[in-house]
Amino acid sequence: MLEQLYFAMEVFLNGLMAGVLYALVALGFVLIFKASGIFNYAQGVMALFSALTLVGIMDGQVPFSHIINATFGTDIHHFGWHVPALFAIFGTVIVMVLFAWIVQRYIFRHLVGQEPIILFMATIGLAYFLEGVGDLMWGSEIKKLDVGLPQGINDTIDQVTYEMFGYGFFIDNLDIVATVVAVLLVIGLVIFAQYSKEGRAMRAVADDHQAALSVGVSLNFIWIMVWSVAGFVALVAGIMWGTKSGVQFSLSLIALKALPVLMLGGFTSIPGAIVGGLIIGVGEKLFEFFMSSSALAGELFGFTISATENWFAYVLALIFLVFRPQGLFGEKIIERV
Amino acid sequence: MLDSAPSTEKLLEVNNIEVIYNHVILVLKGVSLHVPKGGIVALLGGNGAGKTTTLKAISGLLKSERGDITKGSVSYRGADLAGRDPADLVRSGVIQVMEGRHCFEHLTVEENLLTGAYTRKDGKGAIAADLEMVYDYFPRIKERRKSLAGYTSGGEQQMVAMGRALMSRPETVLLDEPSMGLAPQLVEQIFEIVKKINEEQGVTILLAEQNTNVALRYAHYGYILESGRVVMDGPAAELRENPDVKEFYLGMSDEGRKSFRDVRSYRRRKRWLS
Amino acid sequence: MLDNSESYVTEDGRTIGGVVMEMKNITLRFGGVVAIKDISFDIREGEIRAIIGPNGAGKSSMLNVISGFYVPQEGEVLFHGKPRPQLRPYEVAQQGIARTFQNIALFEGMTVLDNVMTGRLNKMSSGLLAQAIWRGKAEKEEIENREKAEKIIDFLEIQHIRKTPVSRLPYGLKKRVELARALVSEPSILLLDEPMAGMNVEEKEDMSRFILDVNDEFGTTIALIEHDMGVVMDLSDRVVVMDYGKKIGDGTPSDIRNNQAVIDAYLGVAHD
Amino acid sequence: MFYREAGDFKTSYTDDNQTFPIKFDRYRYYVVLAIAFGVIPFLINDYWANAFLLPFLIYSIAAIGLNILTGYCGQVSLGTGGFMAVGAYACYKLMTSFPDVNIFFHVIAAGGVTAIVCTAFGLPSLRIKGFYLAVATLAAQFFLVWLFNKVSWFYNYSASGQINAPERFVFGVPVTGANTDAWATYLFCLVFLTISAIIARNLTRGMQGRKWMAIRDMDIAAEIIGVNPMRAKLSAFAVSGFFIGISGALFFAVYLGAVEVGEVFGIQKSFLVLFMIIIGGLGSIFGSFAGAAFLVLLPVVLKLIGVDFLGWPTDIVAHFNLVIVGALIIVFLIAEPHGIAQLWRVAKEKLRLWPFPH
Amino acid sequence: DLVFPSLSYRTGPYAAGGIPFADGYADYFTMLNARDGGIGGVEARVLECETGYNTEKGVECYESTKGEGALVYQPLSTGITYQLIPKATADGIAIHSMGYGRTSAANGKVFSNVFNYPANYWNGASGAINYLMSQGDISGKKVALVYHNSAYGKEPIRTLEELSAKHGYDLTLIPVDHPGQEQKSQWLQIRREKPDYVIMYGWGVMNQVAVQEAANIRFNMENFIGIWWSGSENDVLPAGEKANGYKALTFHGVGDDFPVFDDIKEHVVDAGNAAGAGDQIGTVLYNRGLYAAMLAAEAVKTAQEIHGVADINAAQMRDGMEALEITEDKMAALGLPGFGPSFKVSCENHGGPGLVGMTQWDAAAKEWTLISDFSPSDMDLIQPLIDEDSMAYAAENKIEPSC
Ligand SMILES: Nc1ncnc2c1ncn2[C@@H]1O[C@H](COP(=O)(O)OP(=O)(O)OP(=O)(O)O)[C@@H](O)[C@H]1O
Ligand SMILES: Nc1ncnc2c1ncn2[C@@H]1O[C@H](COP(=O)(O)OP(=O)(O)OP(=O)(O)O)[C@@H](O)[C@H]1O
Ligand SMILES: CC(C)C[C@H](N)C(=O)O
Ligand SMILES: [Mg+2]
Ligand SMILES: [Mg+2]
């Protein structure tokens, strides 16, 4: 019995950690939504793309080498250098700023004032585009990403808890790092959005593009800035997830894990992303744990419920929403006539 | 009230512009007007005459509504404005107060005002001082400074929108229907403020207004727009005396103001163009 | 003082009936803001009742209470003398109360005709299946109601824009379309929230004519919020004045014109 | 003056209420119908049926369904894939449980079942709005897929968890199974599409359509003028579910023949159909057709150009396809955010004025 | 010409696995064309069609390529195979689902046009258990199956259950939904229940994450066995050092130490005709693609012999496949000595011998090594299952068993 409790606690803790990883992706969504009302479906692909770029720079890969080789009959793959992680990250950030500029200059500038669903569709187009470019640029094979983050069970926690409870808890080192990074990001971003002039302008833009334009806020500037920051957040998420599972296409699918987090936390709330992430992480892990381990579930339904993680988060978020339609921390939906 | 323009220097010049929405709907069919420095110019006309469109054509907000200037030009201080970013224009001192308030709903009243100072670089102190000035002009919104603008009443939002524009320390303000939905004494008050900033700070004002009566009392010069064309212009005092203006825009007949009850059965339509 | 059910005849020969709607001690709060403080007034059948007051006084909120969109914390609404249970807004509309909005609330993606036709929705009863098949009842009903709508469209002189999407119309015409949508439902009570804001005198004259004609021809009771004192004084039978949630005056236009509290709070100067 | 309107007077409201009030349009419509029913079945071959016509017909039905919900009623749904799965599985269970009933009725019944499920998932829309609702509908998407994958009753306990359409006949001609003829499957789907389009058109031009659009454009105002939001929204979910269910059933039974739910009816499908209505035009029946045609043809054309014409290696083509599809979507949205239908309308407006603009 | 459609996937979540296989499949035919002028003098043409490992797109690919004279389909997905079985049978085209697809298709009496030699998923399951039994007694031990929650992953469940009854081990089923990016709960469950062995039927990112998570909870890699689709370089590289010792089943050889690779280098790579980026040669999945191509080419040769025509059609190809015989000599002559088992296909048996071997990952050397012989699986148990399942299919679809 006690045993079961410990298991549950372990699952709980790991759920928290998984939640942080979801939140990292959700943060990027929130930023862009807050600043422009754009529901950026491409956030996941941005994480993939930034991670690909990071690995590419680190390994000195020649971008577009495959096409170059195919058209010119050359045989180049690598520059033959290795860039230290820190510089490579810096380089990737520059690429993401460039990306932000392109996105703004060639896409969203032309879509100012359109309905949200149109903007949403444009980001899906962007997601396809970026995925294709990423593949062409860096190839679609799996890449190992190692920026020196620790990974695997944390022995200290394992031992300490073993001595205390007679059961060693499993916590992944990478998750601990992710948590620290996420907390720092959230604090930074909250301060930025709530108290800086640019942050205020960003929220203004989200409320009413036209009015923001009319008071002299440059949409271009704000959006490039926000997309750059979102690109940076995507990079952070990309590093964490890429370290876990290698850098490859599936990284872009983590966007789907971030959506329920967003719903729960509220599309416009930075702290909401974290809290939502934690609730979702814990919720889905515990649910899976109880359902797959309890005989009860088996008796009830005649089959055990398992592999619930793809939908549980959504259903949980849905239930929350019914009570709070704007998410836990989202901006109030102003209903007036 | 001054009826002659205080200076002859042309600050803002609109030259024979045509505006098309959505590539098909022709709205302005050649509008020209001048605004002298330090003047108050009123743009009058019925619904759909093209006042808002003219103002947006000047401030560059047309683009975000799929509108295009297809002919003519707009220049400010002699420089052509074609292709200029609205933000750029605000930095050079032209700000528009949009029709229908357009407050930032999810920002507080005070934050709304502060966004007005977005382009200013003269320090927190000056901005704080101006904030107080705006609160002096509009005590009502001082009471509501902490509440979300989305929850304030229509009139309060109008004050916020005005205040927000003043926060940018503009040289020229394009005012679109400032009196719409305001209580009578507030209308006067707003126009007093307009006059005050015009006189004290030398702010130039281009004003689109339906409330012809008040507008012509405060403006120096007026243009009357109908279906996308300027049909009449002249110093405000002259316009006030013009019999057609009197009848159609001021609601006066020879016997003075007529009651709204009396218009029911008879109506005479006259248009300069149709 | 008149009794609630008594009717009388005005100077210009219209009959004003008994009280149809009575607001009793309404209090409405939003968090800390008290939008309406303990206000009572009534509306009589066939009259034009104006509600005036400074910005933020709570006028629109009052209409929203009548529409069932806001639920007052205290007080009740009496309809035809009986306390009205808490109804959803669409149920209120079904009782024959139609309205227009301060910030035009038209359906921007639809044509003028479709907008006006929505006003008839409570008069049409054919079900989903009948409409899917169309021929027969649904079609007949559609045509009958279309005739009513066209009548109102003619009446308000907006025939030429019938098929135009509303989003392309200038402000003033939108207001007129909104009025058409409200009128076409043949309401017993019509609530108008600043119908003449943003109009010039000529347009206001037009609007006044429509309002008076409706009141005359259909005997529709009208509650009207308006900031143009000229309009209010000329059109209304009785005026209620609100100031920051409180009622500070109630009476005929001439009473109000000379009410010192009203002059201080709202009019600024005594209006001619 | 290509496009004439002048001289085409209407003397009654019935005339003015027609689907195609302008004579020219009406004739074009009859011609299209005649070709679709009378000519294409004789020209059709396997390749064209499978690569283009069948998916086009079936997706058009789905697009009409989603357009009613999203384009007309303003409720963005990302659950289309899941709802199509409901149609498919309902059809499968019905086909295997009542083998003697004609498949035509199975498909209709599958639409009915989907309508019910869709309505149930529409309940949260009474409180949840906008993108929150869109994301919430993903709950339906993922949950339904999981359910069909998990509960073996749905796939008749087959080991692989897939469902296979048994052979069924209409007038003695097989329309499902491995031995179908292109013209038969084509006509079968075409009949459903035609009926769906007519029903959708009737619903959207009358009061029901107005209620939906009112909710879409401004739900609060709609409620205040008398639209019961619950009934309006749920009826949109139901009608939309009905069409989507039919398309799911046809997709499974007629087009694919066998289905693995997670892949065929995954979230990609939801996006695809949403794309169709946005590129085609929200709130337009014609747009549903146009969008479906566009997105069904696009990959075929891209492949033709890339692989067969330019002879590029497939992987580069595959990646370029993503780039091109993505770019095309964006270019399209920028050029005309309101879709092909709007493009068409503007073209008509210009033609009407041509050659004398203004 | 001889048309070989290749339903590949070079984009999407499974691209990392799809690319090397498709490269190997294409390169081998390119090599044959360049070196021998085709097969029996007729040029081979590979028609690639992108499926993205999506069943629906797979069907589209099938429909759009079958008109080009396709001889045999290699769908590279169990889901797509299931879909194509009835269609291809009706069209008289053969399917070769090598090491995947519907296991009971091994019964040629029912599935006339489907071949899944030389080994199938049930052989794999049995092979894994056999291997474990060779390491020690398995009764009373706990075995967990981590599987891709799709038609593919569900294939071995029945066999493993039967085997568990037979050998007395406990079986725990742990499904992972597509794509499998997040498997925390699954691996916490494993950590909790401490199974002695874990068998994995995974594909795509699910493999990498599983290996990584196994390393994270310090599950002994020695006791972690993947099916052959969970045993490529892709799956273990991201986990680095910690993946050392991980095992995977296979039905063919590893490495590029075979003469045929010299020919590939000479006629394909150096000529600049390598498929894809040309950097996959010698990897596990490349080899498998190459092996599949080789088997197809040999079947063509057999068909050419039987029918005496060089430019064969789909029906003749089917006959060739059914009469295919692979011997050690043949393999050696093809430059692939000892690469795969020798076997003979027959009308009754489309499944080949079902010999499976075991490979292990050496993280330091970054290579897979074969650590066991190709040994038989428990056909006594499997054959009845095959018969049962295929006969059920025959009954359902009113197929008259032939042969
Ligand atoms: N975004 C738009 N798309 C299409 N037509 C438009 C658009 N905005 C305005 N119009 C049209 O342009 C004309 C002029 O409108 P504008 O708003 O400039 O008039 P206005 O003089 O400001 O009127 P009001 O006093 O009612 O505000 C109107 O006929 C209107 O229908
Ligand atoms: N939904 C709401 N939430 C919070 N506060 C509200 C809400 N609706 C109205 N208020 C507040 O209630 C007060 C009365 O608002 P109301 O809109 O009724 O004013 P009004 O008399 O119509 O003014 P105006 O003439 O400016 O339209 C205002 O201070 C407003 O900010
Ligand atoms: C390469 C693929 C055939 C393997 C895959 N997991 C399947 O069986 O579907
Ligand atoms: Mg205007
Ligand atoms: Mg109001």
How would you describe this structure in keywords?
heteropentamer, A: 337 residues, ABC transporter involved in vitamin B12 uptake, BtuC, globular, B: 274 residues, alpha/beta, Rossmann fold, six-stranded mixed sheet, four-stranded antiparallel sheet, disordered N terminus, disordered C terminus, binds leucine, hydrolase (chain C)
The Rg value of chain B, from CA coordinates, equals: 19 Å
CATH topology of chain B: Rossmann fold
Ends distance of chain E? 31 Å
Structural class determined from secondary elements of chain E: alpha/beta
Number of domains in the coordinates of chain B? Answer: 1
- The N- and C-terminal alpha carbons of chain B lie at a distance of 34 Å
**Number of alpha- plus pi-helical segments of chain B:** 10
Percent helix range of chain B: 25-40%
Number of strands of chain B: 12
Bound molecules: adenosine-5'-triphosphate, leucine, magnesium ion
Averaged pLDDT of chain E = 92
Pfam families (chain B): ABC_tran
Keywords (chain B): Amino-acid transport, ATP-binding, Nucleotide-binding, Transport
Domain ABC transporter (chain B): 12-252
Protein name (chain B): High-affinity branched-chain amino acid transport ATP-binding protein LivF
Sum this structure up briefly.
Chain B has 274 residues and is of the alpha/beta class.
Topology record:
The complex is a heteropentamer of chains A (337), B (274), C (272), D (358) and E (403).
Chain A: H1 2-36, H2 43-59, H3 65-72, H4 85-106, H5 116-138, H6 155-165, H7 173-195, H8 197-207, H9 209-214, H10 219-245, H11 254-265, H12 270-293, H13 295-301, H14 309-323
Helix pairs in contact in A: 1-7, 1-8, 1-10, 1-11, 1-12, 2-4, 2-5, 2-10, 4-10, 7-8, 7-10, 8-10, 11-12, 11-14, 12-13, 12-14
Chain C: E1 8-9, E2 15-16, E3 19-30, E4 33-44, E5 48-52, H1 59-67, E6 74-79, E7 82-83, H2 89-94, E8 97-99, H3 112-118, H4 128-133, H5 137-155, H6 171-183, E9 189-193, H7 201-217, E10 221-225, H8 229-235, E11 238-243, E12 246-251, H9 253-257, H10 260-267
Parallel strand pairs in C: 5-10, 5-11, 8-9, 9-10
Antiparallel strand pairs in C: 1-2, 3-4, 3-6, 6-7, 11-12
Helix pairs in contact in C: 3-6
Chain E: E1 2-8, H1 15-36, E2 44-50, H2 55-65, E3 72-73, H3 78-91, E4 94-96, E5 114-115, H4 121-135, E6 142-148, H5 151-154, H6 157-167, E7 170-176, H7 184-193, E8 197-201, H8 205-216, E9 224-226, H9 233-236, E10 247-250, H10 259-269, H11 284-307, H12 314-322, E11 325-326, H13 328-333, E12 343-344, E13 355-362, E14 367-370, E15 375-376, H14 379-396
Parallel strand pairs in E: 1-2, 3-4, 4-5, 6-7, 6-8, 8-9, 9-10
Antiparallel strand pairs in E: 10-13, 11-12, 13-14, 13-15
Bound molecules: adenosine-5'-triphosphate (2 copies), leucine and magnesium ion (MG) (2 copies).
